[in-house]
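hey m, so remember when u said the tokens were messed up on ur end? i reran from scratch. heres the input so u can diff it against urs
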Amino acid sequence: MKRTRSRYPYISEHWEFPGGKVEAGESDHEALVREIKEEMDWDIFVGRKLGEVDYDYPDFQITVAAYLCKGDSKPFKLYDHLAFSWRERDELEDLDWTAADQLLIDSFL
């Protein structure tokens, strides 16, 4: 998904995988289901983990994980992003990813 403008120019309007912070008492799976519901009003099933990386940006540190997921059949909405794009694995390199997401992609390509 393409991020909106941010106070951090190095992630502003770059592509990233949907998701967000894991809250206290939540598993990664629970956080991903909650975040997709909040960001897209979409129900998903979370499958196996594809990979995980830690990345240090100038202003914060982040851990990014990717999971195989399946969404329900109803359409979703974008609440927090500029655009979305469905891509095959060999088409991921065509987008301007955040550095953390690019490192994650590089780990499983």
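this time it looks ok to me. The mean pLDDT is 95. if urs says something different then somethings off w ur setup not the seq
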